[in-house]
Each structure stands twice: as structure tokens, then as C-alpha cells.
Amino acid sequence: MELIHGEIEALPARGIMRDTCERYGYAVTTLPSGERAHLAPYRDASGRTVAQKVRRKGKDFFVSGDTKHGRLFGQHLLRADGGRMVVVTEGEIDALSASQALGNKWPVLSVPFGAGNARRDLAPHVQELERYEAVVLAFDMDEAGRKAIDEVVTLFTPGKARVVNLPEGFKDANDLVKANRSKDLADAIWGASAYTPDVLNDLDDELLDEAAEEQGW
After folding, report:
1. Which residue, among 101, 102, 97, 67, has the nearest Cα to 110 in the 3D structure?
2. Less CB within 10 Å around the terminal CB: N or C of the chain?
3. Apex CA 152: angle with CA 147 and CA 153, to 5°?
4. How does pLDDT run across 139-178, given as a tens digit for each residue?
């Protein structure tokens, strides 16, 4: 399927400004059916758009262009020499949201096909992401997002991956942007903590309990 032409504009319902969409080439279009849709471009190593994720109302989407492109949304923003931080989300809208919250000054990427395929989709790009001091995972605050983090961190050098914990009551990055709490989103990203598996957290709690009992607490 050929690429679809669209126009870049703000996304008021999502709280996303035009300059953020411009940075990513994220556009909107009207399909032959008359339905409005979003166009998330995926670019090759030279920066040329080779595929689009065409997002219709809700989470319904299809891919135009090269369906085996194997790229990440926003990957064209990565620097060859790396840098201090790269942020990875599980959706294009969340990538736009996180980038905007950070003043559109830091590379923020998204996996193409959600949390369930995050490890598979990130695996080919680990070497490129490893050039950054920290790979910050800003996945959804739900069971699928937490499971994906457990799977993704094993791709990276121990200590490289850091995990974003959003304020209570917010599922994803865009929820915060829509609530006019972009600063809280930025703070959560900068405050991302080193990954610790839940099983280790449980063991730590058990050890603390045992130590407390020994001390008569």
C-alpha cells in the first residue's frame, strides 16, 4: 500500500502542539471513507519515510508502505554518538507527549506495535540505544506495560534501563499532558529509577521483615 498524504497540525484533543507534530512528521488525513485518521511516519536510516501507521478512531490502525520496515517511531532523532538519555514509550501519542513535556529537546521513541511486542521490536536496535547513558522506559502503568518492562530490560546492560513511574491515577504519558500536568510528566521522566525486578523487591521486603523480627521490632 502506498504512503498516504496528510497535513501536520496540532492535536487539541490530545494536548499536542503543532511544533511537536512537526518534529516527528506526525500528520492527519481524511481517508476515502471520509474518516479522519492520524499518520505516524516510520523512517529508514537515511530519514526517508518508508511506512506509516494509520491510526483511526480508538486503537484501530493499519500500516501503509513497507510493512517490514523494522524501525522505531522517532528513531531519526537519535544521535550517532548517543547522549545522556533516550526515552522509549509504547505508543506514538505517548512519544509525542513525552517529547513535548521535555521541551522537544530530547530523543523520545516509540515501539511500533505496543507493549506485547516491545522486546521483539527493540531487540534489533539495542546497540544504537546503548550509546545513551540511560534508556528510560515510559511504558503504561498497567499490567501489560509492567510485564513489557520486565522483558525489555534484559536486552540492555545491567543498570542501563530506568523505569518511569507516573503519578497515581494516570495510566500513560498522554493522560498527564491532557490534564495540563506536563511538568509532572517531565519530573517523572527525570526521576526514573533504576530497574529492580518485582521478585527482588519482594525478597528485599522479606529480608527487612526478618531483620526487624530479629531486632524485636
Report:
1. 97
2. C
3. 105
4. 999 999 999 999 999 999 999 999 999 999 999 999 999 9
- Tell whether the torsion through CA atoms of 128, 108, 199 and 214 is positive or negative: positive
Burial class (CB in 10 A: 0-12, 13-18, 19+), 64: middle
Q: Which three cell numbers stand for residue 86?
A: 533516550
Residue type, 137: L
Question: How many CA atoms within 13 Å lie on the side-chain side of 160?
Answer: 19
CB-based contacts of 209, cutoff 8 Å, min separation 6: none
Q: What is the pTM of this model?
A: 0.89
Which one-letter DSSP state was computed for residue 180? T
pLDDT tens digits along 47-87: 999 999 999 987 789 999 987 888 999 999 999 999 999 99
**What distance in Å separates the CA atoms of residue 127 and residue 132, rounded to the nearest whole number?**
10
Does the CA dihedral 62-65-68-69 come out positive or negative? negative
